[in-house]
């Protein structure tokens, strides 16, 4: 099986910065973190320094291991130069096909022939990106969850042309950096976890809109009866009502789900987007009382 020594992470935002750190903490990789913005790279490095300091404080990693992980991450803005020595690229730029397509084209042109090109996209299936490369057998989705250093799962998604060897190598890589890989054998929009989550949230909204129970009671029932750490309405507020509405709209457009709930659309129109705006289903303002 190919050894993935040099890992290139493209996009140093919420996901890419932590994918780079988690990879470096694995202790077996040189990591190159690339972003179009120098400021974003500095922010990412600052955040990773804080995450490592906290992990050391809590005894989850030794100070020496933390320091060498940070040292193993090189920062830069030159994708083509970084791709030349990459064994694996993990793309984590904006969720925009045109932007991702350009990254795949450039990485394919610059990276050594055996290198694997992966995308962390939540909704763009790998066959669309593999199609712009000359190596569709060496492309796959590696879908990590936020926050990467806390959430163990990584969905490893096999496109129609992804080889079994690529999947085996990718699964081994994910295990090596201390995450849990799950092999998704056939690509499908939303993969596995988000498909199940969306169904559950849509049902919670139907029950609420139908007047069967209040949203606080639905949350309480799901927390106590299914052992979820948060109820569906708390999760909507946590992730952002606009973000979820985008997911449901997209699903509806693809003919895979119903018209999104009126309640969600009204909240989004009023700017009540959840925690980030201080109000969603619950009130997070200092004056308001957070329930649940
Ligand atoms: N945020 C989440 O909870 C989450 C979870 C799983 C998967 N994802 C997926 O991960 C990907 C990244 O999401 P995010 O939340 O980290 O986004 P983000 O907006 O936080 O970060 C994206 C980064 O990409 C950089 N970028 C944009 N164009 C670039 C280019 N051409 N070259 C280099 N860098 C470029 C931006 O400067 C930015 O720093 C998306 O595909 C998203 O679907 C996100």
Mean pLDDT metric? 95
- The structure class reads alpha/beta
Give the termini separation.
Answer: 49 Å
Number of helices: 12
Helical residue percent band? 40-55%
Strand order of the biggest β-sheet:
3-2-1-4-5-6-7-8
Low-pLDDT sequence parts: none
Which small molecules are bound? Answer: nicotinamide-adenine-dinucleotide
Question: What is the CATH C-level name of the largest domain?
Answer: Alpha Beta
Shape: globular
Tell me the number of strands: 8
CATH H level, superfamily name of the largest domain: NAD(P)-binding Rossmann-like Domain
For the largest beta-sheet, the strand count, sense and barrel status come to: 8 strands, mixed
Binned strand content: 5-15%
Order of helices and strands: EHEHHEHEHEHEEHEHHHHH
CATH architecture of the largest domain: 3-Layer(aba) Sandwich
Tell me the CATH topology of the largest domain.
Rossmann fold
Structure notes:
This protein is α/β, with parallel strands linked by helices and 292 residues long. It has two domains: 6-184, Rossmann fold (3-Layer(aba) Sandwich); 194-277, N-(1-d-carboxylethyl)-l-norvaline Dehydrogenase, domain 2. 47% of the residues lie in helices and 13% in strands. It contains twelve helices and eight strands. The protein has an eight-stranded mixed beta sheet. Helix 6 links the parallel strand 5 (116-119) and strand 6 (139-144). The chain is globular, with a radius of gyration of 20 Å. The structure holds nicotinamide-adenine-dinucleotide. Residues 10-16, 34-37, 40, 92-95, 99, 103, 120-122, 145-146 line the site of nicotinamide-adenine-dinucleotide. Nicotinamide-adenine-dinucleotide binds at residues 10-16, 34-37, 40, 92-95, 99, 103, 120-122, 145-146.
């Amino acid at each position: 099986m190919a050894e993935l020594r040099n890992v290139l992470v493209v996009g140093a935002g919420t996901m890419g910065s932590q994918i780079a750190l988690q990879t470096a903490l694995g202790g077996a990789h040189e990591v190159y973190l690339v972003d179009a913005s120098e400021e974003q790279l500095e922010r990412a490095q600052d955040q990773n320094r804080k995450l490592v300091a906290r992990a050391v404080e809590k005894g989850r990693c030794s100070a020496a291991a933390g320091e060498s992980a940070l040292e193993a991450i090189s920062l830069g803005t030159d994708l083509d130069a970084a791709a030349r020595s990459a064994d694996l690229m993990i793309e984590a730029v904006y969720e925009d096909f045109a932007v991702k397509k350009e990254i795949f084209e450039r990485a394919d042109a610059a990276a050594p022939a055996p290198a694997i090109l992966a995308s962390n996209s939540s909704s763009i299936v790998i066959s669309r990106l593999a199609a712009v490369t000359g190596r569709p057998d060496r492309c796959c989705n590696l879908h990590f969850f936020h926050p990467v250093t806390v959430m163990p799962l990584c969905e490893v998604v096999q496109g129609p042309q992804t080889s079994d060897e690529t999947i085996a190598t990718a699964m081994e890589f994910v295990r090596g950096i201390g995450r849990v890989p799950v092999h998704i054998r056939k690509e499908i929009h939303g993969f596995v976890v988000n498909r199940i989550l969306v169904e559950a949230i849509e049902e919670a909204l139907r029950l609420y809109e139908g007047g069967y129970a209040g949203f606080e009671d639905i949350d309480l029932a799901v927390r106590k009866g299914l052992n979820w750490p948060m109820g569906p309405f708390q999760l909507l507020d946590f992730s952002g009502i606009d973000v979820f509405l985008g997911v449901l709209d997209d699903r509806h457009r693809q003919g895979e789900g119903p018209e999104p709930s009126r309640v969600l659309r009204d909240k989004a129109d009023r700017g009540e987007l959840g925690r980030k705006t201080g109000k969603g289903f619950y009130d997070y303002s200092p004056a308001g009382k957070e329930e649940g």
